[in-house]
Amino acid sequence: MPKINKYENIDNVEREAKKDLIDRHSPFIHCADTATAGEPFEVTVKMGNEYTHPDDFDHYIESVSLFNGDTLLAKASYVPGTLGNVKAHNTTTFTIIPTGKKLKLSAQGYCTKHGIWEGTEVEVAVS
Ligand SMILES: [Fe+2]
Predict the structure, then answer these.
(1) What is the pTM of this model?
(2) Do the beta carbons of residue 83 and residue 90 sit within 8 Å?
(3) How much distance in Å is there from the Cα of 127 to the middle of ligand 1?
């Protein structure tokens, strides 16, 4: 079982010292602040904000998972070469249909060399 590296647990000193490593492995959630219950809602998970990740045969982003609290909503799998074997931001757009009053979205990305990385939770109000 790989260790889960949580972005929120990484202190500022380490974030600065290993800025590129941490950034390129962290999933960043991009979506609207509000959603409508019962209507399709797009959530994009982009690996890395500033730095791109390799797409090599022995080192690539193998999967991206999206959670609402403790519940897995969706998971996308990749093979090496999906991104042309060049450094890129692995980007996945999931379409979900929200229920309830709010979403507590978090994402994990799995790098075949550096393990599982979890980004910062994003709250979405559902009306
Ligand atoms: Fe990696």
Answers:
(1) 0.94
(2) yes
(3) 38
Tell me which DSSP letter residue 82 carries.
T
3-state secondary structure of 13: helix
How far, in Å, is the centroid of ligand 1 from the Cα of 119? 15
Between the CA of 22 and the centroid of ligand 1 the distance, in Å, is 9
d(CA 84, CA 54): 10
Helix (H, G, I), strand (E, B) or coil at 99: coil
Q: Quick one: tokens of 82?
A: 């999906």
Tell me what the mean pLDDT of segment 106-114 comes to. Answer: 97
| Ligand 1 geometric centre to CA of 15 (Å) | 16
Q: Token pair of 29, please?
A: 């959630």
